[in-house]
Amino acid sequence: MNPRSLPPFIAATLLTLAFGLAVLLGQTGGPSLTLLGREGRRAMPITIVSDQEFVGLDDLASTFQLNVQESLGAITVTFKGQTIVLTPDQSLASVAGRLISLPAAPARQGRRWLVPVEFISRALSPIYDSKLELRKPSRLLIVGEFRVPRLSIRYDAVGIAGRLTIDAAPRVATNVSQDGDHIIVKFDADALDTSSPLFQPPSPPGLVQAIRILEPTTVVVDLVPRFGGFKASTLSVGSSGRLVLDIAPPPPETTPTPTTGATTPAPAPASPGAPPELPPALVNPVASVRTIAIDPGHGGDDEGAKGANGVKEKDLALAIARRLRATLEARLGVRVLLTRDDDRNVPIDERAAVANNNKADIFVSLHANASTRPATSGAAVYRAAFDKDTLAAEMRPPQRLQTFGGGLRDVEMVPWDLAQSRHVSQSAAFADMLVATLKDHVPMSARANDQAPLRVLESANMPAVLVELGYLSNPAQEKAIAGDAFQAGFVQAFYDAVVRYRGSIGGAQ
Predict the structure, then answer these.
(1) Stretch 330-345: mean pLDDT, rounded?
(2) What is the sign of the dihedral through the CA atoms of 165, 166, 170 and 173?
């Protein structure tokens, strides 16, 4: 049927329905970037090109009032007199006269131009008149000044009791209340940044049945019926905050004792069993490797070392960290966290805090070196060094604290900046294994295994090392480190070291 033969109002209705269906299919047909601003939330489609996430320049233009023009082989993006110049097939862009790098070059899709999602944080943010914060792991873009803490939730069974840990970064105040078999946690924030799914029920099931978002800033914890109560406590770690909910199980049911003609008294009902003592904040050596934290050094305005050919330490560390994460997750099935997944500056104390808050089993900080002597080259692995006199002065005697189930226990208190002192031998063991595997894949320096007073490692409450990938001041090594062969070799060597280390502590193979 020819649409022109239909009455005008019917044709208009059909066009409206078709447009609505197209929009619906577009919204549900693939991933999207969630924009959070004064107007609320809206979605921007994401297109996957060669495993990279891209967004349309036209979508950005309509959202942020940008002027986009294409002429003389260049794409020009203008906002209030400031200009971004993109060149097809090149991953470099000029932002107000300053060169920046993108993870990929612009891509054409029909008549549209697509740019990597990182274009928002690296190119658009420096010239835009409102704060733009891209959180790529959760596909969230915050436009303006909003308090949106990242939430990380973990449940651990402790005997018949349970512990629910909610980490929020940055730290915000919380209000905890109870409504029947539900614990309600209200965050003093504008919104919450949560991963999906928010909570994976443990196997076998524990005391927590589900966790859900009730309102933009409220988390509801659904517990088993008639749970035995809970205790909430908070801990501040740098700019992050931790809420710990220790949950007691339901009281055991009692069966009445049948009575006879005798006057034997019935036994007293059993009192609710106290849950076992919960583990202290600083634990003993791990028994397996389930979580690995990778710290790409530097970021944002802190570029680190820079080679003669333009390779920047911050970009190199992030690129290798991403490759390392993909390999470890795919081949080992472990959880891998990055202290940063974009070009931003993370305070040094927060880097170890990310690993500590997520109970990582290994922490590695990635860097590249530089020297005034261009011939200097080679990778090296460092671990933290502590002065014995400082350790003796700072270590505090055990304190007797009350436990959740009643009674007292001695807890050894360790200063935050000396947490690594409990893992010196494990860090040395992992460093030895990493150096041994690296020697088969990448050039090593004369002092490939060393110690240094490294602040980024001192607060790590798990085996931790810092890796210098090589020297960007050496032109030949700068080129090699930026190449695929070196990076693939390093990733393979690190994978082999983790497998060896996991086997040495009795972890699964």
Answers:
(1) 89
(2) negative
